[in-house]
Amino acid sequence: MLSAFFGGLVLAYAGMVGLCQGLERHYKQVWQRLPAPVLRRGLRLAGWASLAASFAASVAAWGWAMGPVGWFGLISLAGFALVMLLPYAPRLSLLLVPAGAFAWGLAWLIA
Amino acid sequence: MKKQTLTQAMAWLHTWSGLLFGWPLFAIFLTGSLAVFDQEIDHWMQPEVQRQDVPVALAAEHAVAYLQRHHADAGAWNIALPSERDPGLRVTAGDRRRGISTDLDPRTGEPLKVREAAGGSFFFHFHYTLNLPRQIGIWVVGLVALVTLATLVSGIIIHKKLFKEFFTFRPNKGQRSWLDFHNASGVLLMPFHLMIVYTGLVIFGLIYLPAALHALYDGDFEAFYQEAIGEAPHHHGPSRAPLATLVALGPLLAQAEERMGPLSAVSISHPGRSDALVEVRRVLGNRIALSKGHNMVFDGVSGKLLAGPPELRPSVLTQRVMFGLHFAQFGGYPMRWLYFFCGLVGSAMIASGLVLFTVKRRRKYLVEGRAGDFGHRLIEGLNVAVIAGLTLACIGLFWINRVLPVELAQRAGWELRLFFALWALTLLHGWWRPHLQAWREQLGLAALLCLGLPLLSALTVDHPWDDRTRLLLEATSVICGALLAWTTWRIGRRAEQPAPRRHKASAALEVN
Amino acid sequence: MRAVFSRAMAALLGGYAFTYAFTACLARLLPLDRVDSLLVASLPAFVVYALAVLWAFAARDAWRAWLGVPLALPLALIGFWPQLLEHLG
Q1: How many CA atoms, within 13 angstroms, populate the side-chain half-sphere of residue C21?
Q2: Same-domain status, B447 and B498
Q3: With an 8 Å Cβ cutoff, are B206 and C42 in contact?
Q4: Is A73 in Cβ contact with B335 (below 8 Å)?
Q5: Domain count of chain B?
Q6: Which of B20, B114, C31, C51 is most exposed, with minimal Cβ within 10 Å?
């Protein structure tokens, strides 16, 4: 259950990063240039896909009744954390995605 | 109020209801977030209780032996069994809430000397009564919740760039930053805010709005309850039945555990009589629906199962799911942490709204070239006392718990008296000190107390970190302390070099 | 100030009267068991109340803000019809 929970958290954060970076304003905030339209659409699509995967992970962690409740909590808090971090440490806020995925994978291998 | 557009009307409502009800609401949110971990806080505040791996059947056996020795003639016994969240074994003779309670060592059954403490249950009771007399408190909190619901909706209506600024936070820009923070914390956690406020109203819904109960049942709640859930057998008043030996609890507990999962408590009414009843309660939380009252009842002499946990009809189940969504007893510790953080972000959302009110006003006064009037001073002082002051008083309660002498009579009462005295002091301090200094000093002190909590434990308790619950609680306190210290430092920087004031006209444009 | 006070009262008291009557009426009219009617009418009642509060502040003038009260009367009549008959007869 814990593994699915952390997976859900990392995926929720990744999803929010995707949606956020799919917006011109926030892409520019990190990279100081505008994203190509294809990239923008790709980021958004990946964001939605990641949120959907996070939903699946929540259901795996809690089951069909509690999973959606937990999922709302995860994406809300992940989004809030991203919004707070983005202006202070733009690159770091994106780096958290691979870092989180790596930590999750490591924990999964160990466990 | 002059004639105005819908947005203006809603903005006006949001501003003023947010201000007036924001103060009690912040207190409700903050104590509610702490109440998510009420049993863990209870456990922390009674360091004499040790976590031990004892089978519940053995613990129950010890409890019954103790009760038979000391309270054989009591009309009812209650045994709170050790659980993952609260590893203590507590027996009560007489009424479950008002009877005489004793803490026992679950391994030996000997009474433990445990300090009286306000505990996390204080935060829980404060959360829904504000420490007023229960009936009044419930109504006051209900009024606050209803106004909050309207305020949330009006907030959505007046937020013009809800999607465009979904991820926007611009720090170091004075009023702009406060509004950004308020919007981000409000919008991103909107599902949580709406859910928690609405389900909170539903819990006492039939007290607040007994319309349908009056219309269909002539106000007879008992009749409704009987039809909706059905009542398990229970006793009223003392027993006149002849003496009889109490059934052994072990097999009953095993049977109950198999059917309902982990158990939390056993109640025995008329123990030692031939009409004795044994009610076994489960730990809440293997489903969302709040399963309070869904217990198994056994005959206390023969051990025959008299009533199982009732099956709920869909409408009652819906109501219980709404209760359960609020009480957050489901989904284990991961869910508890989600609720805790959502509650803290909600508290910060309310706090930022309250601060935003004064920031806007102060700016208006500066533009008009006059000092703030008495009302403004009052609002600023109240903001400090409610937001920083209550935070300080809450962490202060943890310190009071460790510092007050263990043998003090009426100790739990003194803990609370000191808690409220500390909170009252922050009000005086908030009024007396210049505004930003008051914020800094109170938040700074709260930060110190949070950061110093493990140290305090080390100085006052033997083996403070042997217990994982206490260790985690103190680690959480240190993290909160670090956040508070960072906030204090930011306020300090602002006090030294005030951000450059921007153009007058932009002030008016920034309402939304 | 008086207009504000009037609207606040319309929101809280007028809104309560309207919600109370609406819920009673709905519970009476729903073609379900007593238990189900009571819950199905009561659980969403605070949505109605919150909207009534918003209405009191959104209404064009202070009079319209009180609209819920006259509406409450017929709703309450339906909701408490049997009690009324018993009382009269």
Answers
A1: 18
A2: yes
A3: yes
A4: yes
A5: 2
A6: C31
Contact B334 A76 (CB under 8 A): no
**Six-digit token string for C11:** 């929101």
What Cα–Cα distance (Å) separates residue C48 from each residue in B21, B55, B431, C26, C58?
Answer: 20, 50, 40, 12, 15
Q: How many residues does chain B have?
A: 512
Report CA B328 to chain centroid distance, whole Å.
11
**For chain A, domain boundaries:** 2-110
Cα distances from A17 to residues B170, B407, C18, C54, C88, in angstroms, run 17, 55, 45, 36, 67
Looking up tokens 């555990």, which residue turns up? B257
Distance of residue B124 Cα from the nearest chain C Cα, in angstroms: 23
Last residue of a domain, one of B311, B340, B366: B311
Domain end point (choices B249, B280, B311): B311
Cα–Cα distance for residue pair B343/B31, rounded to 1 Å: 9
pLDDT surpassing 90 at residue B64? yes
With touching defined as 3 or more inter-chain CB pairs under 8 Å, the answer for chains C and A is no
Secondary-structure breakdown of chain B: helix, strand, coil percentages, each rounded to the nearest 5: 60, 5, 30
Kindly determine whether residue A83 and residue B188, on different chains, have CB atoms separated by under 8 Å. yes
| Domain boundaries, position B83 | 50-114+230-311
Measured distance CA(B388)–CA(B217) in Å, rounded: 47
B11 and B149 part of one domain: yes
Going through B374-457 in order, the beta strands assigned E by DSSP cover none
Determine the residue of chain A that is closest to B321 in CA distance: A65
Which chain B residues are closer than 8 Å to C79 by Cβ? 211, 215
Beta-sheet strand order (sheet of B263-269): B100-104, B89-93, B76-80, B263-269, B277-282, B296-299, B305-307
Torsion sign (Cα): B51, B54, B57, B63? negative
Mean pLDDT of the region B407-411: 90
Beta partners for residue B345, in sequence order: none
The C-alpha of A110 sits at a distance from chain B's nearest C-alpha, in angstroms, of 20
The single residue listed with the structure tokens 């809800």 is B162
pTM above 0.90, yes or no: yes
Count interface pairs B-C at CB distance under 8 A.
110
Cross-chain CB nearest to B209 (options C19, C25, C32): C19
Task: List the beta bridge partners of residue B111.
Answer: B104
Do residue B212 and residue C46 have CB atoms under 8 angstroms apart?
Answer: no
Residue of C6, C18, C30, C39 to mutate, interface with B, max B Cβ within 10 Å: C39
Compare CB distances from B316 to C25, C26, C35 and report the shortest one's residue.
C35
pLDDT along chain C (89 residues), means of 10: 89 96 96 95 97 94 90 94 87
Q: Point out the least confidently predicted range of B8-22, B343-357, B367-381, B444-458.
A: B367-381
Which residue would you say has higher pLDDT here, C83 or B144? Answer: B144
Question: With an 8 Å Cβ cutoff, is C53 touching chain B?
Answer: yes
CB of C63 within 8 Å of any CB in chain B? no
**Which partners does chain A have (≥3 C-beta pairs < 8 Å)?**
B
